[in-house]
Amino acid sequence: MESSVCHLGGIIVRDLSCVVSNYRSVKTVDQYCKEQNVIGISDLDTRSLTKRLRETGCLVGALSTDASKSDEELVEAAKNWTIVGKDLLSVRGGYEEGKGQGRRRR
């Protein structure tokens, strides 16, 4: 692992492989997400989703594994979510734009 903590809020994939194909892997993506309590969706047309995001920008939604939640409750949860106050970028030691901290391609 490159990080000691999983930073995923959720995962969306077209095809979820049940086969571990990398020699360094010790578990499947499904096992890892379950251990880290990360919700996910598979069998989704990710190309269509990407196209929609490009056309409309950020979309807010709600994912749940709780079957007792009604569609109305999930819509309400999505409407009440806000990006304000969310730390979506965390860089150890801080980051200053334009200070050449990234790799350069040649």
Automatic annotation (TrEMBL):
Regions crossing the membrane: none
Domain Carbamoyl-phosphate synthase small subunit N-terminal: 1-64
Signal peptide limits: none
Keywords, sorted A to Z: Ligase
EC number: 6.3.5.5
One Gene Ontology MF term: carbamoyl-phosphate synthase (glutamine-hydrolyzing) activity
InterPro entries in the record: CarbamoylP_synth_ssu_N, CarbP_synth_ssu_N_sf
Top enzyme category: ligase
One Pfam family in the UniProt entry: CPSase_sm_chain
Domain of life: Eukaryota
Name the record gives this protein: Carbamoyl-phosphate synthase small subunit
